[in-house]
Amino acid sequence: MSNDLYMKSLIDVMNQQEDMEAIFCEDFHSAISVQPDFVLFDIGSLINDEVFTVIREFNERGIHSIVLMNGDSQTGFLKFIEAGTGSLLIKTEETQAKIVETLRLIQKGYYFLPPIVVNYLMVELSEQKVINKEVLTYQLHKNAIDLSRKEIEIADLLRLGYKNPKIASILGLAEGTVKIHISHIYAKIGAKRRKKVITMLNDLLKDNEQ
Quick one: which of 145, 153, 164, 154 has its CA closest to 204? Predict the structure, then answer.
């Protein structure tokens, strides 16, 4: 679904493949009528609320939506992911053949995000982890639960469901040291079971959101 020549050129390349058949559609209803396996969007002129609504409609029908982005696009992709976009691909003249190969993999159940999107999401996740640990520290102090800095680091990983060996690996500690810290966390929080401790730690973060 697009209005530019790039998409029509890409469709020509796709239709040259023995295992593909592509159709250019001007709107949502014409695309639905052909019952596609997936829908390819060129977002060059479609970045508005309507396109997100259309992607959600396709998603609800179980149709994989693939969005083509300009290579210099730095923003907007999170909205496409939130709308239910299955994959995001970079649009350049040199990579039409690569896009066709990628579409074959998508047909097999793979999902694709360009490096620019992956890097952005990794930064966002990293920043969110820092924020969550700061919030957890504040809430522990607010509730008079006096954990040491190392115990807070372990508690933050504990609430995410990490097992002791993984926590030890992440923090560069011996597993026995992690067990000792966790026993201190249990005692200070006032719970004896791991599941209860995890629930209590996550509830502290939820309390901050209210």
Answer: 145
Tokens of 41: 């969007």
Residues 70-94: tens digit of each pLDDT: 765 555 677 778 788 878 887 765 5
Q: Is the dihedral of CA 200, 206, 208, 210 positive or negative?
A: negative
Name the β-bridge partners of 38: 64
Q: Is pTM beyond 0.70 here?
A: no
Distance CA 67, CA 40 (A): 6
Q: Which two tokens stand for residue 55?
A: 């992607």
Query: Which residues pair with residue 149 across a beta bridge?
Result: none
Please name the amino acid found at residue 31: A
Report whether 85 contacts 66 (CB < 8 A).
yes
Contact between 163 and 182 under an 8 Å Cβ cutoff? The reply is: no
**pLDDT 10s digits, 21-67:** 888 887 777 888 888 888 888 776 455 677 788 888 888 888 888 88
Report the distance separating Cα 144 and Cα 146, nearest Å: 6
**21-25, 121-125, 181-185: lowest mean pLDDT where?**
121-125
> What's the gap between Cα 198 and its chain centre?
23
